[in-house]
Amino acid sequence: MARRSTLINIDPDDLIYPYFVVSGNKVRARINNFPGIYRLSIDELLKDIRSLELLGLTKVLIFGMPDKKDLLGTGAYSEDSIVASAVRKIKENFPRLIVMTDVCLCAYTTHGHCGILKGPGIELDNQKTLKALASIALSHAGAGADWVAPSAMAKGQVSAIRKTLDKNGFRKTRILGYSAKFASNFYGPFRNAAGSSPKVGDRTGYQLNYRDANAALNEIAADIKEEADMVMIKPALAYLDIIKQAKHKFSHPLAAYNVSGEYAMVKAYVGSRGQGLGAGEEKNIVLEILTGIKRAGADYIISYHAKDVARWLKE
Ligand code: PBG
Questions:
Q1: Ligand 1 center to residue 283 CA distance, Å?
Q2: Is 234 in the active site?
Q3: CA of 190 to the centre of ligand 1 (A)
Q4: Ligand 1 centroid, distance to 304 Cα (angstroms)
Q5: Relative to the CA of 104, which ligand 1 atom is closest?
Q6: Could you give the angle at the alpha carbon of 194 between the alpha carbons of 193 and 196, nearest 5°?
Q7: Are residues 134 and 163 in contact, defined by beta-carbon separation less than 8 angstroms?
Q8: What totals of helices (H) and strands (E) does the chain contain, helices first?
Q9: Ligand 1: which of 184, 202, 234 to mutate, most ligand atoms within 8 Å of CB?
Q10: DSSP class per residue in 227-275
Q11: CB distance 65 to 123 below 8 Å
């Protein structure tokens, strides 16, 4: 009898590719410390997605950068927000692509925190934040997003969004909870991309302490109870133990975010254009990393290397 292979393969269907969208036309702007990733205007985004589909990728995660920020992050929930506009165009042109959107306030608030603040300090007003997150999610669902992904780490964000979506006829829009999101040192390039660094203080008030594995598992349990269709662990590499425990404990669909600093670390290691280790080595390193994340238990991986991987798998 043939023995079934237990080897793990990375498949383009496992991967989710993030995009950073800005207003304007023909914008393809480099980002500090983030080689190979660009801020794209919607026209450029659509071109890029065409090549992404040709590579066999099926899922994207959309982040937006508004023209103007304010205290309440209102740019995030207007009907013509940058993300809602991008999603509408994507769905018009690529109806089969699975579109996920990030639901957070940090790129839209002047203070750069993930929610609405209570007062002059940096403490979040949870109720007001939940209301804002629910309207953001609703505007994305209205534009055609298949999945909304709340990343603010506000208490009760999944159930607040679920209720609002259901009440407005979006029962089929699914929720990816950024359930175990650590206050990590690996988000630097992303914050350059989204212009979302906190102006005062840090995010340790609402993101998880990486020394606390139990808190992470409790957050995941809470999000599943709140009916998240999938849960996420973020970052991935320093958290493989959490991924593994979560998969065993909950057997719920699980995503891992191989974040910007992890990507930039690989880029720094392999160097660029023939200096350093070169492209062949980058392929081997990235496939080893992604396989490790999948082996730990991730069903889906958000990766800035997704397009490269899809290309390498075709070679
Ligand atoms: C916050 C958010 C962050 C990332 C995605 N959404 C980080 C943060 O600033 O706390 C990071 C992703 C990455 O580093 O690739 N809403």
A1: 25
A2: yes
A3: 6
A4: 13
A5: 16
A6: 125
A7: yes
A8: 10, 10
A9: 234
A10: T-SEEEEESSGGGHHHHHHHHHHH---EEEEE-HHHHHHHHHHH-STTS
A11: no
Catalytic residue status for 244: no
Here the tokens at position 177 are 């909870």
What are the DSSP calls for 210-226, one per residue?
A: TT-HHHHHHHHHHHHHT
Query: In whole angstroms, how far apart are CA 116 and each of 70, 135, 203?
Result: 10, 13, 13
Run of H or E residues at 63: strand 59-64
> Residues 20-38: what's their mean pLDDT?
96
Q: Burial, 48: exposed, middle or buried (Cβ in 10 Å; 0-12, 13-18, 19+)?
A: middle
Q: Express each pLDDT in 232-285 by its tens digit.
A: 999 999 999 999 999 999 989 999 999 999 999 999 988 855 556 666 889 999
For the chain, how big is the Rg over CA atoms in Å?
A: 19
Convert the pLDDT of each residue in 278-307 to its tens digit.
668 899 999 999 999 999 999 999 999 999
CA–CA separation, 42 and 143 (whole Å): 14
